[in-house]
Amino acid sequence: MRWLLLAVMIASLGFQAAADERELDVKKLVDSFNAIEEGLPNEPYDSNGDGKVDLLEKQDEDGKKIMEMIDFNHDGLMDDFYYFTDGIITLRKIDSNFDKKIDVWVYIKEGKYIEKYERDLDYDGNVDQVKVFGEEE
Ligand SMILES: [Ca+2]
Ligand SMILES: [Ca+2]
Ligand SMILES: [Ca+2]
Predict the structure, then answer these.
(1) Do the domain assignments include residue 39?
(2) Which domain holds residue 115?
(3) Which of 7, 51, 79, 84 could be 65's S-S partner, Cβ–Cβ 3.0 to 4.6 Å?
(4) Which residue(s) pair with 129 in the sheet?
């Protein structure tokens, strides 16, 4: 968990993670990833050696992660998206059934606590379950 080691530093990044925007289309997320101009080029990883890239990440000039995406089931399509602010993870979007539509949104506080998650249980694009942590006693 390299990002946990990154100290929170004063940063004035032009990029803002669109945390409130519930984007469903995986292709658009990939496009938005590719549209991030700042920082280092993509660092492609092929963890299982099948020739398909299954992990890509974008960093800013300071080497802090901005966005990362993973092809969890190795089908050549990204399905797990991580968003970072000042190098700290803040949001994760998952296509859990690999139909190219996001169906899980996880909002993360202080890089480790799950603040809230939303799930589209029947994969119709509408959120069916919202769980907010820390509100109920
Ligand atoms: Ca995949
Ligand atoms: Ca899905
Ligand atoms: Ca639904």
Answers:
(1) yes
(2) 22-132
(3) 84
(4) 119
Is it the case that residue 37 has pLDDT exceeding 90?
no
Q: In this predicted model, what pLDDT tens digit does every residue of 107-122 receive, in sequence order?
A: 999 999 999 999 999 9
Q: Distances in Å between the alpha carbon of 4 and those of 31, 32, 61, 111, 137? A: 26, 24, 18, 7, 28
Question: Would residue 95 count as lying in a domain?
Answer: yes
CA distance to 40, 47, 73, 76, per residue, from 50 (Å): 25, 8, 12, 10
Query: Tell me, what's the pLDDT at 86?
Result: 92
- CA of 97 relative to ligand 3 center, distance in Å: 13
Give me the residues near ligand 2 (ion), CB cutoff below 5 Å: 95, 97, 99, 101, 103
Distance 134 CA to ligand 1 centre (A): 32
Report how far ligand 2's centroid is from the alpha carbon of 74 (Å): 15
Let me know if residue 35 belongs to a domain: yes
At residue 14, the pLDDT reads 35
Q: What is the pLDDT of residue 71?
A: 96
